[in-house]
Amino acid sequence: MLLLGLLLPALAYASEIDLTTRLQQGGHVLMLRHAHAPGFGDPAQFKLDDCSTQRNLDASGRVQAAAIGEWLRRQGVRDARVYSSQWCRSLETARLIDLGPVTPLPALNSFFEREHERMSRLVALNAFFARQPVDGPLIILVTHFVNIQAIAGSGVGSGEGVLLQLQAGKAPHGVGRVDFRQ
Hints:
Elements: H1 16-24, E1 28-33, H2 59-74, E2 81-84, H3 88-97, E3 102-104, H4 118-131, E4 139-143, H5 145-152, E5 161-167, E6 170-178
């Protein structure tokens, strides 16, 4: 499970029919990159507990996050176990998706420009995956580009995601990229 050096194969776009079926089945994880937040990285004065020091969602990002929630509801997702990075842009995205209470999960915190935190984040995230039932309800993880790239082997744009299938005793299997504009 903790074979962090191995990346999942690059993900293809999953068909809408396959996605709809999988989103309603147990044992899947939808990893989302937070919605649009203008800029790059975080300001030098970044503080985790102070949103005014962070790069945050703009109006288009808030609309994008709400649209993701609507798209998921059209696919039959009514609620999910929702976890988020502690970054304000991720927490706001998770709340605006509006599919259940949001639980901050430090393992989802970005390690962009914090390479020394990469391994501990990935170990913690893989330990989280290992604790999840392979037939449990949909899990939505709102996180950052670097986290998704490290787990899925492929990056995604703001407000895009990847669908993973949990596997007992193994790293999650990549199912495909999710384009919410379909």
